[in-house]
């Protein structure tokens, strides 16, 4: 499957494709016995996609063969044994992409000239991605994380490695000139290089940062230059080589504390906005404000989903079987809000009960 989502990846996925760009979206399950249905649902969804492509007169014979081949390749990459809450497959002439996401998605097959990205966008926002930098004297590694998982980032110069062997160590030891590991100039230069590489990554993909290592290592890293304001130190050594589970375990208490503090701040900001009459609450009111580009901060409960219909330009509750029913309206609102430059924050379920589970602070 494809690696972790990023803003750059999502921007590329939004670009127009040669018709047909096929989007397959379906909910999946992490545990037994519910996950037993996933292979059957996937086969049925793929069959529906194949039929849609084969029956579409706008698809040429050559392009049909290409797309169906890409679809078969995509399905071969699906790993339902390690499924999360949703599966997203994108297929177009000459390309295919497979994503497992930690957010429930509706079941859907769509043929268009763009991919249906709103569910991926909402999943990426809900994941609240962060960076974790693990520092040692001979290795500095960067990890891309979310509340669910963490993977090593191998690119942009990472990981940085060097040998700690000093060919002149014996002579220096005899004359008493052998510095400690975090005192010699070679280590300082090594961490300066890591700091430069880190700044480049943060410039292109800003996220909260956790820096993991022994206190002396973190102090030396900070001496090389200031770290971002939202950096959290984690004083634990021995993790520059991972594994991912150990790095995730080290970061999790700091991440959970940060999330709790952030939710408190968001709720307070929504309350203040209510007092200033710069507030929108509930799905329809938020949707109207999002369409007008008026949302500055959007808050959504983690697992809030609902089915609605459009009645005279306003959203009303609907049954899934009703014509025109929209079952991923929350994701569409998240994508539209991000597209207008709004900050989107997901909070724990029931945090926004008195605000109908979704609310926003208005720009005006």
Verbal overview:
It is a single chain. By secondary structure, this protein is α+β, with helices and mostly antiparallel strands. The protein is 38% helix and 23% strand. It is built from ten helices and 16 strands. The protein has helices at 7-14, 38-55, 61-77, 118-127, 169-174, 185-204, 215-223, 244-275, 283-291, 329-339; strands spanning 21-27, 86-92, 95-101, 108-112, 130-135, 139-145, 150-152, 160-161, 209-213, 231-235, 279-281, 295-301, 308-311, 314-317, 343-347, 358-362. The strands form four sheets. Strands 5, 6, 7, 8, 9 and 10 form a six-stranded mixed β-sheet that branches. A four-stranded antiparallel β-sheet has the order 3-2-1-4, sandwiched between helices. β5 and β6 (139-145) form a beta hairpin. α9 runs parallel beside α10 (329-339). Mean pLDDT is 91; it is low at 169-179.
Specify the biggest β-sheet: 6 strands, mixed
Helix/strand class: alpha+beta
Mean pLDDT: 91
Number of helices: 10
Determine Rg (CA atoms, Å).
Answer: 24 Å
Unreliable residue runs: 169-179
Percent range of helical residues: 25-40%
SS strand fraction: 15-25%
**β-strand number:** 16
Shape: globular
Q: H/E order of the elements?
A: HEHHEEEHEEEEHHEHEHEHEEEHEE
- State the distance separating the first and last CA atoms: 42 Å
